[in-house]
Amino acid sequence: MKVVLAYSGGLDTSTILVLLRKKYNADVVTVTVDVGQEDDMKGVEERAYELGAIKHYTIDAKKEFVEEYVFNAIKANALYEGKYPLGTALARPLIAKKIAEIAIEENADAVAHGCTGKGNDQVRFDITLKAFLKPNIKIMAPVRELKLTRSMNIKILNEYGYSVSETHKKYSVDENLWSRSIEGGELDNPYQEPPEDAFAWTVPPEKAPDKPAYITIEFEEGIPVKVDGEKMNSVDMIKYLNKLLGSHGFGRIDLIESRVVGLKSREVYEAPAALALIESHQDLERMVLTPKELRFKRLVDEMWSDLVYQGLWIDPMKKHLESVINSMNKYVSGTVRLKVFKGSLAVVGRDSPFSLYSREVIDYNTGWYPTDEEARGFITIHGLYALTALKVRNSK
Ligand code: ARG
């Protein structure tokens, strides 16, 4: 049997690699999709061969991840339950698509992933794999099938004579350009503040520099194109913002999250660039969209985020939502000024060629002014339903 394994180099997928060989007698081809996790890809490849892979692929999908996945998320101001920028949720369908492509190319009998039976990622992987795989290729989820736990995995690897690194023992981490997610260990006590050793991208706000930093971001049709006036490629821009904003203690998220599988979990994230870009994008939308567009887009954005979180990247509904999202983003061009200081970030200025804000109109001294008659007429009609209802109901 030949199995293509989605391999991250982490604890779960390392255990699976060994189990597939020893228990299922499989030839294992490992695939690591590089979506900007900090891991040294060379090290992951070496680890795969050390654990017995017959062949290893490293696929650099950073640009595709940012431009085909993350950019859509920015345009949709995508924050699940108002807080989580969906880093893991966005990367899973891309990873699954790449795995499916290689499984077909390699003529594999099955693909395998390291998701547990209690998380969202199994849903995201399985649905996308079903969309791209041929029906004769099986989907294996050994952690789910064998109910493997992290401590069991450590034991299994040790039994077969392989080492386990200290960080793998403590937390479960998933990382890409858009966010770093940290789960498990002490974090499972939702009343306890996350310990400092859970974080890697951000300094504690109290240790951030005493001077604020100012940054300008320029958007073109909803997509960030320049930072501080400099054109930057998409991947470098996100890396740069993560570093800079993280060094000011900005980007930590602590969320009691509603998983797809019916349970709440305590999730800790670091996502400096994602939070800053979404905040900026949304601010610019407030300047260029009409109130009705803004109200409607909020609903569409939320539905888009829910679909992505729930693993339904391939749901045709997503395309319909995106046509609305893209149509409104045609006007989201302009520049936003940000100030970051000791863990907090604020938009302190914005400008756009499509701005609906007009200083000439808003100014009390020199601007437009309705006549008293115009104002009274408007107010009479505007308040008519409410005042009528009040009168009718008070008379009963
Ligand atoms: N709760 C997040 C999500 O469902 C992250 C899941 C993966 N995180 C991890 N540390 N293994 O998108």
Notes on the protein architecture:
The chain has 396 residues and is of the alpha/beta class. The protein has 3 domains: 2-172, Rossmann fold (3-Layer(aba) Sandwich); 180-351, Argininosuccinate synthetase, chain A, domain 2 (Alpha-Beta Complex); 359-394. Helices cover 44% and strands 20% of the residues. The protein has 15 helices and 14 strands. It has helices spanning 11-22, 41-50, 62-75, 87-105, 121-132, 142-145, 150-159, 166-170, 234-246, 272-288, 291-309, 316-329, 359-362, 372-382, 384-394, and strands at residues 2-6, 27-34, 55-60, 110-112, 138-140, 172-175, 180-183, 213-220, 223-227, 230-231, 252-258, 264-270, 334-341, 344-351. A 5-stranded parallel β-sheet has the order 3-2-1-4-5, with helices on both faces. A 5-stranded antiparallel β-sheet has the order 10-9-8-13-14. A 4-stranded antiparallel β-sheet has the order 6-7-12-11. A hairpin with a 2-residue loop joins strand 9 (223-227) and strand 10 (230-231). The protein is elongated and about 85 Å long. The N and C termini lie far apart (78 Å). The model has no long low-confidence stretch (mean pLDDT 96). Arginine binds at residues 88-89, 120-121, 172-174, 181-183, 257, 267. Residues 88-89, 120-121, 172-174, 181-183, 257, 267 line the site of arginine (ARG).
Largest sheet: 5 strands, parallel
Give me the secondary-structure category.
Answer: alpha/beta
Mean pLDDT: 96
* CATH architecture classification name of the largest domain: Alpha-Beta Complex
Which ranges are low-confidence, i.e. pLDDT below 50, for 5 or more consecutive residues?
Answer: none
Look at the structure and give the CATH class of the largest domain: Alpha Beta
Give the number of DSSP strands: 14
Q: What is the H-and-E element order? A: EHEHEHHEHEHHHEEEEEHEEHHHEEHHH
The CATH topology of the largest domain is given as Argininosuccinate synthetase, chain A, domain 2
Give the termini distance in whole angstroms.
78 Å
- Overall body shape: elongated
**Number of helices in the DSSP assignment:** 15
How much of the sequence lies in strands comes to 15-25%
Helix content: 40-55%
Kindly provide the radius of gyration, computed on alpha-carbon positions and rounded to a whole number of angstroms: 25 Å
Bound molecules: arginine
Strand order of the largest sheet: 3-2-1-4-5
